[in-house]
Design goal:
heterodimer; A: alpha/beta; four-stranded mixed β-sheet; three-stranded mixed β-sheet; 21 helices; B: six-stranded mixed β-sheet; two-stranded antiparallel ribbon; 12 helices
């Protein structure tokens, strides 16, 4: 007879250690590869601070983090929101914050969820493996904080702050979607940063060097960019003519951090689903081994069902699809299909039927991102269970149309629509740098490619000013309204000089 | 094996810097909110902070996103009624949740609530008194009792082990060793030189050399009296102290609401002084035809009737200054509130008292007249003083409670000119 780890629900460091050991043993039995864990116990105030800096354990200073902190505190104190039980950081060792207010049962669940679930996801998913550097991130954040505070000393808090404002505004446009950046350690980064400074100083920017020559008749001016650039921050860092070296470095820091978080944005459903699958599994195994008792298990089930609850679309609590629910359902279903397939499953997932569930599950978790994961694994059963249906809101139609529901005709469509929902490329407008008027007034030309005739939001003018602040000269963005008519946003372009701009642009 | 670290005792307020950055950035809005709050609430209630609301649209962090329009497709859970091809009415108000799309709904979701937060008391006062300044120099005086500051004062031979200065002690040990061994070494050198030149063994000399070497070796490496300690002295640190005289007319013409307004003014002044001085005495003087020093309770709440002779209060004030608050040691502030009533002949006496006995000793003297009526003699006479002593004497007119704070700000606006 194995023994209970604890006969009451108060936690202590020793008990957490015992749970971690027990859970770790089971996880090892499943062959979950993880980074070593660093479990940190923090209190509510520290948790809110961690919230405010989007979980970065070391963050540079900026008013927006203060704003988030104030908001979190306010909502927490008013009881509008509970705090997460944990925050986990994709680093090696994997840092997990546990709240001191948690009961022992919660701590155990959180350890299973974060320290084994998320942790193994971070270590093995292909996006994290190829796009983030768990070894170097803490060092890099430290470097970033030091560098930025140094800049504040040298150039003033205000100058740094306004620069960061603009960088943050463009943060989602600071990622390479297809090119893999090189991971770097902090010391390498520092050395490289110095080298970059020297190089850039030596290099005379193309924008300054170009003395316009008269064009031969009929000759088109050469485009500044051979191809459009979607990574706006990268472009600005490298090409903005007036920026000083430290400004480029700060743009780079924001870009790097954005890049680091990019895989997390792309794998929300999978990441939470995977972690939930494992906390459910590991806690049940603990129960089966007699290490936790009924009351413990009841509390766990209560929390677990709260975590994976999905309010229906017409509920006042509805706030989009709960990634925990969706992910948990899909992973569970993969296991079911492997072990107890129905005829429907045989038709839809012939490649899974009868296979080893653990192997299939790991393959699914490690080789996809949300979009492709849903496209690959969302089964008719899960769609039926969740009652998923797809609606189309076309502003040319008088009503919203139900496009497809969870039935024979609709499965494929719903699945594709849901996958498309998780395609970050559809969520954010597609805006690219297309050209620079390098022969005249150095205006930066951008183009917005419409998706489903969706126009840009009302704040686009503000965004143009952020772009202009970084670029240093006029900025010009072409877009379209829902009817397809061209819309042009500009900032900092002297009207009288517009006539002299390069011909043949866009 | 996981590592478990208890971080609960780590220094808190990692987020304080960011909070201050936020407050600084939205200074204008917060300032406006603070001003509004002061008008609305009684200033006596200054122990708490203040809930500040700022327009959430000011604090939005912008991102590129898509607006309303075009085709939006969305997958929702919990279908219990729809079939493919069903038409749904578009929710009225184009920003409705149903179908207007993710873009606006999710991105502005958090901004829907008012942006409200609480300023701590210190932060509140900071905003309240921002860019205000106490006029005239601040005298500092050694109060004798209040505070001592430990200061380093060289080294001493006696002390507690915790203050042992190791470098000093070892240096002094070395000095002692060198000094004590010097005569032996000199003798030894002489003997050895002799020994070498003579080229033969000499029992006696050998003995002496050995003896000397023993003596040198016997000098202790460290001795009690080598030990040096850091000397720390308690230096009295000067505290700045101020006395605030509250003068108020309590004659029959002063109503409760007038007194309430006066009280708010005194509270503001008190809070303001508190930020600048460590120690503040408050003297309450009320007067009708005669003046009396009273406690706070009586000052504000006991009611009397009768005529008004303002000079009686001024006279008492200057007597108390002479008696208890030497201008060399105290920063003196006077604040007088009245509805402007006075015996006509008395106003001249007041001005004379102020000019000769009070203003020369005062840091600042302010007069507020709380009345909706026309000014009377006292105001006319004081006006001359205000021109004569622009940096020491200020007077303002208050009609409603909302005037108090703006008036206060006007009087203490930072540095009109430096005196």
């Amino acid at each position: 007879m194995t023994q209970l780890i604890s006969d009451n629900n108060d936690w202590s460091i020793e008990k957490i250690q015992a749970f971690d050991l027990a859970i770790g043993e089971i996880a090892e039995g499943y062959g979950l590869e993880i980074y070593s864990n660093q479990i940190e116990i923090i209190n509510a105030a520290q948790m809110m601070e961690a919230y405010a800096t989007i979980g970065m354990p070391i963050g540079y200073n900026h008013w927006s983090y203060g704003k988030k902190l104030i908001q979190t505190e306010q909502q927490y104190q008013k009881g509008y929101m509970g705090l997460a039980y944990e925050i986990v950081i994709n680093s090696n060792p994997c840092i997990a914050y546990l709240m001191e207010e948690n009961t022992l049962c919660m701590q155990a669940m959180v350890i299973a969820h974060a320290c084994y679930g998320h942790n193994s996801f971070f270590k093995n998913n292909y996006l994290f493996k190829s796009w983030t550097d768990a070894e170097g991130i803490i060092d890099y954040l430290l470097f970033a904080k030091q560098y930025i505070s140094e800049c504040e000393h040298r150039h003033g808090v205000e100058a740094v702050e306004s620069l960061l404002d603009s960088c943050h505004a463009l943060m989602n446009f600071g990622v390479d979607r297809y090119k893999r950046p090189y991971p770097m350690s902090a010391s390498e980064e520092r050395a490289k940063q110095q080298q970059r400074e020297i190089d850039q100083q030596r290099m005379i920017n193309d924008l300054w060097r170009t003395v316009p020559k008269a064009l031969a008749p009929g000759e088109q001016p050469e485009r500044f960019l051979k191809e459009p650039q979607e990574n706006l921050l990268y472009f600005l860092e490298k090409q903005a003519p007036l920026l000083e070296q430290w400004q480029r470095e700060i743009i780079r820091i924001v870009r790097k951090i954005s890049q680091y978080f990019y895989p997390q944005k792309q794998t929300q459903v999978m990441n939470e689903g995977w972690a939930s699958f494992w906390h459910y599994r590991l806690m049940n195994d603990l129960y089966d081994q007699g290490k936790i008792d009924d009351s413990f298990m009841l509390e766990f089930m209560h929390m677990h069902s709260a975590v994976i609850a999905q309010p229906p679309f017409d509920s006042p609590y509805f706030n989009g699809i709960n990634p925990y629910t969706l992910g948990f359902a899909i992973f569970n279903d993969i296991k079911r299909v492997c072990e107890e397939p129905t005829d429907e499953d045989r038709e839809w997932f012939s490649e899974l039927v009868g296979k080893d569930w653990l192997e299939q599950l790991k393959f699914a978790a490690y080789s996809f991102k949300d979009e492709s994961f849903i496209l690959q694994y969302l089964s008719p059963k899960v769609m039926r269970d969740l009652g998923l249906f797809s609606i189309v809101d076309d502003d040319r139609e008088p009503t919203i149309k139900v496009d497809a529901i969870h039935d024979e005709q609709g499965y494929e469509k719903v699945r594709e629509a849901l996958a498309a929902d998780y395609n970050l490329g559809n969520r954010e407008p597609n805006i690219q740098v297309v050209d620079v008027a390098h022969r005249t007034d150095r205006t930066l030309y951008l183009h917005h490619t419409q998706f489903n005739r969706q126009p840009l939001a009302a704040n686009t003018d503000v965004m143009l000013h952020h772009l202009q602040r970084l670029w240093g000269f006029g900025v010009h963005l072409t877009s379209q309204d829902p009817t397809g008519a061209p819309v042009i946003y500009t900032a900092g372009i002297n009207e009288s000089r517009q006539a002299t701009r390069d011909t043949a642009i866009i | 094996m996981s590592q478990i670290i208890d971080r609960r005792l780590n220094p808190k307020h990692r987020g304080q810097v960011n909070r201050q950055r936020f407050l600084k950035r939205y200074r204008k809005q917060i300032k406006a909110a603070v001003n509004g709050a002061i008008k609305g609430r009684s200033v006596t209630d200054t122990n708490g902070g203040e809930i500040i609301t700022i327009d959430p649209s000011d604090t939005v962090e912008h991102q590129f996103h898509t607006g309303n329009g075009g085709v939006k497709q969305r997958v929702l859970p919990g279908n219990d009624r729809f079939k493919a091809g069903d038409q749904i009415e578009r929710p009225s108000g184009s920003k409705g949740q149903g179908g207007s799309g993710e873009g606006s709904a999710s991105n502005e979701g958090e901004g829907d609530d008012l942006f409200q937060f609480e300023l701590s008391r210190d932060e509140f006062l900071q905003f309240m008194f921002e860019d205000l300044e106490l006029p005239n120099l601040v005298k500092r005086h050694i109060d004798g009792v209040d505070t001592y500051k430990p200061v380093r004062a060289g080294f001493t031979n006696e002390g507690i082990p915790g203050r042992l200065n190791i470098v000093r002690s070892l240096k002094s040990a070395m000095m002692r060793r060198i000094a004590m061994s010097a005569p032996y070494k000199r003798e030894l050198a002489r003997l050895k030189a002799e020994y070498d030149t003579k080229q033969h063994t000499d029992e006696v000399t050998e003995q002496r050399i050995k003896g000397l070497e023993k003596k040198i070796a016997a000098i202790p490496f460290i001795d009690d009296f080598d030990l040096k300690y850091n000397l720390v002295l308690n230096e009295p640190s000067p505290t700045s102290q101020a006395v605030m005289f509250c003068l108020m007319d309590v004659s029959g013409s002063m109503t409760e609401s007038t007194k309430e307004m006066a009280k708010r003014y005194y509270m503001l002044l008190y809070l303001f002084l508190q930020r600048n001085y460590e120690k503040i005495d408050v003297v309450f003087i009320r007067h009708h035809t005669t003046a009396k020093e009273v406690n706070e309770q009586d000052f504000f709440y006991s009611r009397e009737t009768g005529g008004t002779i303002v000079s009686s209060a001024l006279k008492l004030m200057s007597d108390i200054i002479d008696d208890r608050y030497s201008p060399d040691e105290w920063n003196i502030y006077g604040a007088q509130a009245s509805d402007g009533d006075n015996w006509n002949e008395d106003s001249l006496t007041c001005v004379k008292l102020l000019r000769e006995r009070i203003l020369p000793n005062c840091q600042h003297f302010s007069y507020i007249e709380i009345t909706a009526r026309d000014h009377q003699a006292l105001w006319q006479e004081y006006s001359g003083l205000a021109e004569e002593y622009p940096h020491y004497f200020a007077m303002e007119h208050i009609i409603t409670p909302a005037d108090i704070y703006p008036t206060f700000r006007k009087m203490f606006k930072a540095n009109q000119e430096i005196v």
